[in-house]
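Hey L., structure's done. Input below.
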Amino acid sequence: MRVYVAGPVTGVRGLNRFAFEDAADQLAELGLRPVVPHWFVPPDAEWRAAMRSCIETLVKCDGVCLLPGWRASRGAQTEYLLAMRLGMDVRELPRWLG
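Output:
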């Protein structure tokens, strides 16, 4: 199962890469195949271009893992709404792990 990791990036130190990578490691330990935006979006990408790339990738996944702080992120909110409308398995990180 491919699980897209969504959370705050813009305005977070280091683009929040550590939190995304940590979540990916934990999901992989469960036998899931995490997909992290940092793996395919250049760090200097303009927000709109980054979101287009993220959405293109998200729709090819089976589920979405939401990181802490996702509700305050415009991008993560967009990803959440799209995933919910598509009927994907959407959960916050602790629910994926528990």
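The chain has a mean pLDDT of 97. Strands lie at 2-6, 33-35, 63-66, 89-92.

-- N.
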